[in-house]
Amino acid sequence: STSQPESISENVSEYVSEIESIKAEADLLRQKLRFEDAVKKYSQALALLKNAGGIHKLPALQDLEIGLLNDRAECLRYIGQYQSAANDLITIANLANELADLAKQADALIHRAELLALMGDVSAVQEAGEALTLARETGISNLICAGLVTLGDALMRISDYSRAPAPLACGAHGCHYVL
């Protein structure tokens, strides 16, 4: 007879296999620029993950959840559903915080600040500043540069030119972020 831990492990493995299969379908739809259909598939995979008896709280599966949310947010952005994409990004930031992954948290908040700026939300400046602070804590040049660019863009969108970081600030960190 199968012991309880083996049964749980097999169950998780079956769910993960099915979720990854749905994700592969969604990825293919995204590559074909069928973003609405991809969103549906990513949502289906996320629902399966959430309905799998709490397995989504396992650290390894939280990374899978973050990936699904990130891919769905990207598709939502392409179809102009900025608020839904921003909601997915805040969920990613919260999951990354639970995992103590500053890089993923900063990246999600940078992308969220970009969306808020696109929507004309003045809170984009504060969010971009917080994301930049986290990015600096990681020490990852590309994240720091993305944070600087996002903060600069958010400030420019509200016509606060005096506080916008200099465009060449990214070069000072040695990264190759395309402006």
Radius of gyration from the alpha-carbon trace, in angstroms: 18 Å
The total count of strands amounts to: 0
Mean pLDDT, to the nearest integer, reads: 85
So how many helices? 7
Classify the helix fraction into a percent range: over 70%
**How much β-strand is present in the residues?**
under 5%
The run of helices and strands is HHHHHHH
> How many angstroms does the end-to-end distance come to?
60 Å
| Shape type | globular
Specify the biggest β-sheet.
Answer: none
Structural class: mainly alpha
Low-confidence stretches: 1-8
How is the topology of this model organized?
Blueprint: H1 4-31, H2 35-50, H3 59-78, H4 82-98, H5 102-118, H6 123-138, H7 141-157
Helix pairs in contact: 1-2, 1-3, 2-3, 3-4, 4-5, 5-6, 5-7, 6-7
